[in-house]
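re: ur question from yesterday

yeah so i grabbed the chain u mentioned. its 210 aa long if i counted rite. heres the sequnce exactly as i have it in my notes:
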Amino acid sequence: MEKIKQSIIGLSVIAVMASCGSADKKANESAVEENPREENVEVKEIKINTAESKVMWEGTVLGVYSHSGIVNVSEGMFVVEGNQITKGKFIADLTSMEATDDNYNPEEGKTKEKLIGHLSSSDFFQVDTFPNAVFEVKSHDVESGVIVGDLTIRGTTKEETIKDVSLNLEEGTASGNLTFDRRAYGVAFTHPAKDVVIADDVELNIKLKM
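ran it thru and got these structure tokens back, copy pasting raw so excuse formatting
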């Protein structure tokens, strides 16, 4: 009789353990279903095609008119994971600066050449000493279309944001808009009375080809 009792107890223990094991297995399966493993994300290092990449700029003389132009991209690369830029940088060659607007009056001595010469001088970008502007990526929020990174102009580095970011790997293009305060980088006229009529914000439209 004692042996029968022991057998019954033993079978009960086994049944309970089996039940627990089955429950644990189902719980684990449920967890796997709720948190499926992410597929391997392809990581690419992409070099920028400098011949087809440009940065368009625009600055405004308050209440009067604006000037706009183009700067070439001399170097750049990105590391892309899936559809996210995880790091990278591009360099704008300020010695290539051109004006593309028509707000000039040669009869008054106002020409594109004179403007570019002034923007290249120590009053503004001091291109002979600081020929490049550099943007280095720190983070990319794909959902909001924003890239945060460090912009360096005239040897000064500040954190800036590129908005409206569009990345199309199939077409090999990337674009976005960045607005920076020129005064934060020492890009300011030496004559305060004249500088005050120039808007502090410089708008950039970045178009990169990869």
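noticed a couple things. The two ends are 84 Å apart (CA to CA). also The longest strand covers residues 65-81.
anyway ttyl
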